[in-house]
Design goal:
- By secondary structure, the chain is α+β, with helices and mostly antiparallel strands.
- It has 2 domains: 104 residues, Arc Repressor Mutant, subunit A (Orthogonal Bundle), CATH 1.10.10; 152 residues, Regulatory factor, effector binding domain (Multidrug-efflux Transporter 1 Regulator Bmrr, Chain A).
- It has 10 helices and 9 strands.
- Strands 1, 2, 3, 4, 5, 6, 7, 8 and 9 form a 9-stranded antiparallel beta sheet that branches.
- A hairpin with a 7-residue loop joins strand 8 and strand 9.
- Helix 1 runs antiparallel to helix 2 and helix 4 packs across helix 6.
- The longest helix is centred in the N-terminal third of the chain and has 19 residues.
- The chain is elongated.
């Protein structure tokens, strides 16, 4: 399938550039999607973040060099993009559990992480409820914060934003401003490659804003909208199923528009929600 071939083409690109500064945007282009969406797909399918996968591959090859060459440790560190022996030592120990110098001395075990390869597997035993919705541009108001280009670094940023918004009165204030569709409290990831990535906690609204709130216009797009209920963990499970089960056989691929989570009620233990995935026909 073309979709799987693209993912494997992106992995090939990574393998060819392991001794260089890998540009995530270039990797994503090999898969014909944005850097943000590629990183999400990769982490769901590989069960490891893209950054960690690259780190493991580099340290696997570094271990081979330490065992089979006379190159200095500092030169091997530079080969794999580490400007200081301390940074290289830290990365190496995080993967292998021992210092590079011990590998050079011999007689110790190291780990090997071979290149990943994607293939199609049969899943989809459980039903998935979704609709395709075409929507013109709409305005949201809320609070936002920049996101890191490596999405695993945002796993603390976004929960902290929600915690702060719940404690400082932002969420009830936004609820009072809501007057547009989609109705609900929104988590909006604006992660187009040409823009500064930002995450918004917001509502659809035409009302004027005052500091610290800000406005953003979500561009017109087509979304696949999935419904669900449960905890925050269940949202992540649904998003993983969308990527691994629905997307490969859907006839759609990611479009260059924001991802949206719509929270329809305020119960964190039994939330009713929608996940909006921007899509375009292949």
């Amino acid at each position: 399938m073309e979709w799987i071939e693209r993912l494997n083409g992106a992995v090939d690109y990574i393998e060819e550039h392991l001794t260089e500064d890998i540009d995530y945007e270039q990797v994503a282009r090999a898969a014909c999607c944005s850097s943000y969406h590629f990183q999400r797909m990769f982490s769901y399918m590989a069960s490891v973040s893209l950054g960690e996968y690259i780190r493991r591959r580099r340290m696997s090859l570094a271990a081979v060099d330490l065992q089979g060459s006379e190159d200095k440790i500092v030169d091997i560190a530079l080969k794999f993009g580490y400007g200081s022996p301390t940074a290289f030592n830290r990365a190496f120990q995080s993967v292998h559990g021992i210092a590079p110098s011990l590998v050079r001395d011999g007689g110790v075990s190291v780990k090997s992480f071979p290149p990943i390869s994607f293939k199609i597997t049969v899943k989809g035993v459980e039903e998935m409820n979704y609709r395709i919705e075409k929507k013109g541009e709409f305005r949201i108001v809320g609070v936002s914060q920049p996101l890191h280009r490596e999405i695993e670094k945002n796993f603390e940023v976004v929960p902290q934003m929600w915690q702060k918004a719940g404690m400082d009165g932002t969420i009830p204030k936004l609820a009072g401003m809501m007057n547009g569709e989609p109705m609900g409290l929104l988590g909006v990831s604006v992660c187009n490659d040409e823009e500064v990535w930002r995450y918004y906690i917001a509502v659809a609204s035409s009302k004027p804003v005052d500091d610290p709130l800000e406005a953003y216009v979500v561009p017109a797009s087509t979304w696949a909208v999935f419904t669900g209920s449960g905890t925050n963990r269940s949202i992540q499970d649904l998003e993983q199923r969308i990527v691994m089960e629905w997307l490969p056989a859907s006839g759609y691929e990611y479009a260059n528009a924001p991802d949206i989570e719509v929270y329809l009620n305020a119960d964190p233990q039994n939330a009713q929600y929608e996940v909006w995935i921007p899509v375009v026909k292949k």
